[in-house]
Write a structure and sequence with these properties.
This is DeoR faimly transcriptional regulator. This protein is α/β, with parallel strands linked by helices and 284 residues long. It is built from twelve helices and nine strands. Strands 1-2-4-5-6-7-8-9 form an eight-stranded mixed β-barrel, surrounded by four helices. α1 crosses α2.
Length: 284
């Protein structure tokens, strides 16, 4: 009896697993060539300075509108792209397109050129081509290197510190800035900041979300800001959804903020019209 149940159980799980595997395989096949079919597009989420609430840069985020399946969340397809190695093809295309886009943006209301922040996956970090891809994107687009920021996840960098440090040094020599994304989630954080040459950290939105309710998250956020500043590192908070969060962060000296309270990810014309409106975060 038990054996039979076990067998059924196995069959049940294996069928459920088949579905998940099939679904991923299907997505992978569909993702191949999606760029060429124009199903992928870039959106830009504005990043504001707390001090004067001025729009000073934007993060590029990839979107996939599948003709049948509809909008597929990045959390799903980026993972598929990462696991299948497709990210090694997509990553450089995003980088190049983002640089070309940023090159065309007008200056903000106080005459500054915006930076463009591009997510780099752990696979791209490891395949040995990143420096060359960055250099050819800059050359091809004519964008000044200092306007390009690369977002690497804390865990990818900490995972292979030797490789990361030498690569980050080369990227710095090329003139680009490097930020650690989703900072604080890896728990390796503060002590590693001394060893890894980064220009900024992006405090993960899970900390920002709970800051008002959770004293530990507030304390950690405060500590990250103080520590980063002591090391001369810029601090960005992502996922700012409420004014109260914005206030807490700016009181603590957080340099830059990004989140739905300030602005949603926009298409290129949307970003340009925000710049033309005066590039200030809405005062509500
Ligand atoms: P991320 O780099 O941490 O990007 C921030 C994510 O937070 C984005 O999700 C953004 O839309 C979302 N977000 C921004 N403000 C708020 C807010 O106030 N509240 C909430 N709840 N969410 C907010 P998205 O676009 O779904 O992207 C998810 C992740 O997918 C990104 O996380 C990034 O790791 C990855 N990703 C997106 N585009 C690319 C890409 O071109 N290349 C690579 N390698 N990864 C990408
Ligand atoms: Mg990011
Ligand atoms: Mg992040
Ligand atoms: Mg994240």
């Amino acid at each position: 009896q038990a054996k039979l149940a076990g067998k059924n159980c196995f069959r049940y799980y294996s069928r459920a697993m088949d579905h998940a595997v099939e679904r991923r395989l299907h997505l992978e096949q569909e993702l191949r060539g999606a760029w060429e079919r124009n199903e992928l597009r870039l959106v830009y989420q504005p990043i504001f300075r707390t001090r004067d609430r001025m729009l000073c840069g934007a993060e590029v985020l990839l979107r996939w509108d599948h003709p049948v399946l509809g909008a597929i969340p990045p959390s799903l397809f980026i993972d598929v792209a990462e696991q299948s190695g497709l990210i090694q093809v997509l990553g450089p295309k995003v980088l190049r397109a983002a640089c070309e886009q940023a090159k065309r943006w007008p200056r903000n209301a106080i005459g500054e050129e915006l930076f463009i922040s591009v997510n780099v996956s752990p696979k791209q970090l490891r395949n040995g081509n990143l420096l060359q891809e960055v250099e050819s994107s800059l050359l091809g687009s004519g964008l000044a290197a200092s306007r390009l920021h690369l977002e690497l996840t804390e865990t990818a960098v900490i995972g292979d510190e030797m490789l990361a440090v030498s690569l980050l040094e080369k990227l710095h020599r090329a003139g680009v800035r490097v930020w650690l994304d989703d900072f604080g989630t890896g728990f390796s954080g503060l002590s590693h900041l001394r060893q890894v040459p980064v220009d900024g950290v992006k405090i993960d939105r899970s900390f920002v979300a709970d800051m008002e309710r959770d004293a530990d998250d507030l304390a950690l956020t405060t500590a990250i800001i103080a520590m980063a500043h002591a090391l001369g590192i810029t601090v960005v908070a992502e996922g700012v959804e409420q004014e109260a969060q914005f206030e807490l962060l700016s009181q603590r000296g957080c340099d830059l903020v990004q989140g739905y309270w300030l602005a949603r990810p926009l298409d290129a014309p949307g970003l340009v019209s925000l710049l033309e409106q005066g590039s200030m975060a809405a005062l509500r």
